[in-house]
Design a protein that fits this description.
2 copies of one chain form a homodimer.
Chain A lengths: L3 E5 L8 H13 L4 E5 L4 H13 L4 E5 L2 H7 L3 E11 H11 L6 E5 L6 H6 L2 E4 L7 H12 L14 E3 L8 E3 L3
Parallel strand pairs in A: 1-2, 1-5, 2-3, 4-5, 4-6
Antiparallel strand pairs in A: 7-8
Chain lengths: 177, 177
């Protein structure tokens, strides 16, 4: 099996902490194997690792200094999510053909400004609508659609806590000490 | 035609501004008609209204003081997105049967703590996975799936700017003065 990695670039420490945490948690919840943050500040990773500890994995996080170096070394496919790209709904059949779920895929998610080199390094620049909205929303729809919907049925192992779905209210079970 | 409204509750001014803006922009991009923020601070609405002005609508925003009062007056269906709810993939066929796209639907999106009354007021408490991740991700997948994918093909009118999809790079056209 290959690896499904989400790479967060352009993170501004402090200002982007919550957004970046949400990107990482979305990656984990929707079937990615690893979240890589390109930054010199790994604080958002702590929250994500804590969630993995409680709600299960496997899911890992990494901090890299240089996004370009990471992408240059990456041997699999690269999809960059951007509102300027080609409509995901048109391109997905071809992407799934060239890189079916289970192949090595890096999904790059930017913050405000993304350097042009990333557009060039990507095999696909894909837009989840060509409207300005949210990198978290784009990533969620990308993962859901790329997995053909199975992302929502992901299993997690080694959890200490598990949510028990309820029609109304909250129920969290402890699965182990 | 009914109205598709996204209601953001539990917004903490300052701390949640960006998250709330992303919720609103996601609502707009993915086919909602209106974004309602329950708060005494409407700052996040400015950014959303600016985007509508540039990239088109129709899309409106409203500030309400009391989320409970809004929901009590709402005559349509109410879906509350929460990690504690029932799996969206199981419930969606029944929701679409009782409230097909085009019916009056309010989608409630919380921040940290959601009062129990909201769970009770909702016709459905739905989970986009029972994992902790992001209200923006949940809303995106809810809107995409509820629309049966047509949310990504939404048309916008009265735009002054339009993104022209590119395989690499950025292109924004001015459509009118």
């Amino acid at each position: 099996m290959g690896e499904l990695v989400v790479l967060r670039i352009g993170h501004r420490p402090g200002r982007d902490d919550r957004m970046t945490t949400h990107v990482g948690l979305t990656a984990r919840a929707l079937g990615a194997d690893r979240f890589v943050l390109a930054s010199n500040d790994g604080r958002p990773l702590t929250t994500i690792d804590d969630v993995t500890e409680r709600f299960g994995g496997p899911f890992t996080t990494d901090l890299v200094e240089n996004a370009g170096a990471f992408l240059n070394e990456w041997a699999g496919m690269i999809v960059h999510l951007t509102m300027y790209g080609l409509p995901i709904q048109d391109q997905l059949p071809r992407l799934r053909e060239r890189c079916p779920p289970g192949c090595d895929l890096a999904i790059v998610v930017g913050a405000e400004k993304v350097p042009f080199s990333v557009y060039e390094l990507a095999d696909w620049n894909l837009a989840v609508t060509n409207q300005p909205h949210s990198e978290v929303a784009s990533l969620a729809i990308m993962l859901d659609r790329y997995s053909d919907g199975t992302a929502l049925d992901e299993d997690f192992i080694d959890a200490t806590h598990r949510v028990v779905p309820q029609a109304a209210g909250k129920r969290v079970e402890r699965t182990q000490e």
